[in-house]
Amino acid sequence: MLALIGLFLAALLAATLFPAQSEAVLVALLLNASHPVWLLLLVATAGNVLGAILNWAIGRWLGHLGEHPRMPVSASYRARAEAWYRRWGWMSLFGSWLPFIGDPLTVVAGALREPLWRFTIVVTAAKAGRYLVLAAITLAVF
Q1: CB 117: neighbour CB atoms within 10 A?
Q2: What pLDDT score was predicted for residue 71?
Q3: What angle do CA 80, 83, 89 make, to 5 degrees?
Q4: CA angle, corner 51, sides to 55 and 124, nearest 5?
Q5: Which residue among 10, 46, 84, 127 is least crowded, i.e. fewest CB within 10 A of its CB?
Q6: At CA 115, angle to CA 112 and CA 117, rounded to 5?
Q7: Residue 92 and residue 95: Cα distance in Å, rounded?
Q8: For the chain, what are the domain ranges?
Q9: What is the tens place of the pLDDT at every residue in 28-80?
């Protein structure tokens, strides 16, 4: 049970703006073979999606701050991110699993008031897909 909690927390942290590697934890647990693959994928996906929802909520909160002088993101960076998101819309959330851009993308989605229901569906599909591919490669190679 401790391993599953660790995987969940690693996946949750990895989905936030903090640097973490849930993939390494998942691969280690897959190679250990002490838990069913479906359970590991479910736990990792749940943690990662919850972390993305936290980012979305932060974006909703930060969106109210707008041009506040203590805004943690510069106005020019925010304008670029918003323009990019407006151009690609909710479909861009399929990239939420990508390193470096996926996590900020989920924050921007919240700031631009992407509906939580659609956000959750798309992000879950993207993140579950990533973990599924990682598991398939790991089990095929090892």
Answers
A1: 8
A2: 61
A3: 135
A4: 100
A5: 84
A6: 150
A7: 6
A8: 2-141
A9: 999 999 999 999 999 999 999 999 999 999 999 887 666 666 666 667 777 77
